[in-house]
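Fold these two proteins, one after the other.
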Amino acid sequence: MLQGLVMCAKCGDRMTVRYHLHGTRRVPDYVCQRGGIAHAEPICQLIVGGELDAAVGKLLVQAVTPLTLGVALAVQKELEKRCDPAAVVNGCPEARFSGF
């Protein structure tokens, strides 16, 4: 769930995710291993991600209400109006500087 978003609290590097089986379920582990990959150092830290993903999932369900979803969709529509079709494909960089 958090692939590419988790940062290591020890060194600040982005953590990678790897999965293992727990019974029949795939469970994520978040691993800070950049030093291990680049310099053959031991991993900085490993966080078992099953409970972390469950907690973040609960927070998301609480945060994504009909109101917040409606606001997010309205903002997206407004940004799409401000962009030409080619810019939408490229993430519409000019929308970032249009007053939002």
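Now the second one:
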Amino acid sequence: MNREFLEDWIRIYESEPCLWEVKCKEYHDRVRKDAGYARLLAKLKEVDTNATKDAVIKKINNLRSAYRKEIKKVKASTKSGAAGDEIYKPKLWYFPLLSFLGDQDTPRASRTNVDSSDDGDDKSATEDGPHVVSPQMGLVKTNTFM
């Protein structure tokens, strides 16, 4: 698989937002997604006549994984307080081609299954000392600093 082929393949992938844009209404349309996979499969068959839809999905996953790893390295280098010239620069030649994926891999907001209702029995640490814990949890107040 040469560079020109992969560039074309990524452009086709980008032109099918139903395959990568989670907020796109067609993202959940199986018929539309199958048509997008078919376009990518036709292109892939130019270099691999035995290619299947599974091969297309695997290729997409490989490209996205590599892209995420590079993004993670960039973020890690910026968090470390590195100077502007020390920030990691992605090594993948196709990294800029996948920039359309930039905001697609943001994690969902976390959810909890713990009931957070306030029934008035809990006391805050500022009211009664440093180790006040809810009686519902079976723990008691300890005033070790008083």
